[in-house]
Q: What sequence folds into this?
């Protein structure tokens, strides 16, 4: 079983749609969780950290479910510019052992 | 004022050659990493250094040797390159903490696209 698993997609959605991604992690001792965004041929960039209580940043909402060991990302009112690959990351206490999922590809169409 | 920089951006070389990739961060971070992203886009950690000390060494062939001359630099040397080494290699850094705060963002360099022919 991979340490972090994501549905690779692709997710093809129209502009304005709401889309949700899930990610599961195998290390129950993981303490830090992130969503990164990676554009084609670019480096991953932090989209948002995921906190235990869940957190929201504009159109993006991240949730953590420790009991089931999954994190989720909800994107509301999708924009064309949201098209990218979204990587889920799970890390140890000092983030020195981050593990990433293989990414979920999102394409938002007009 | 790039935060994490890597050189070269592209590297095309023949099997059997030895090559190096350099990474520098100007964020004052204590921890640096090397990741390999293969053709299936899976981003896999290879090494992690904290204040010049190796703390993570995943199952990576010993043809790969990281070197950290100071905490702002982490270079990757690869001996006897093989076809399977073709990938994008990302350097990253983070401000590792010893406090109770678990979250710690990693900042990635632009990547080095290595092609072994």
A:
């Amino acid at each position: 079983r991979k340490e972090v698993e994501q549905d690779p997609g692709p997710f093809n959605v129209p502009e304005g749609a709401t889309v949700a991604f899930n990610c599961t992690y195998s290390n129950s001792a993981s303490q830090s969780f992130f969503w990164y965004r990676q554009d084609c041929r670019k480096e991953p960039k932090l989209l948002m950290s995921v906190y235990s209580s869940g957190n929201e940043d504009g159109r993006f909402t991240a949730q953590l479910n420790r009991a089931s060991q999954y994190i989720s990302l909800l994107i509301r009112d999708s924009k064309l510019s949201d098209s990218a690959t979204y990587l889920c990351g799970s890390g140890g206490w000092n983030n020195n052992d981050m593990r990433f999922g293989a990414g979920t590809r999102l394409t938002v169409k007009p | 004022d790039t935060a994490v920089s890597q050189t070269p951006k592209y590297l095309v070389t023949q099997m059997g050659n030895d090559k190096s990739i350099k990474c520098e961060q100007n964020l004052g971070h204590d921890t640096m990493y090397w990741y390999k992203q293969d053709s299936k886009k899976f981003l896999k950690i290879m090494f992690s250094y904290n204040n010049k000390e190796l703390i993570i060494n995943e199952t990576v062939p010993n043809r790969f040797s990281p070197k950290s001359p100071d905490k702002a630099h982490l270079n990757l040397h690869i001996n006897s390159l093989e076809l399977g080494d073709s990938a994008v290699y990302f350097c990253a850094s983070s401000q590792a903490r010893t406090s109770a705060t678990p979250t710690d963002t990693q900042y990635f360099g632009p990547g080095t696209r290595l092609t072994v022919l």
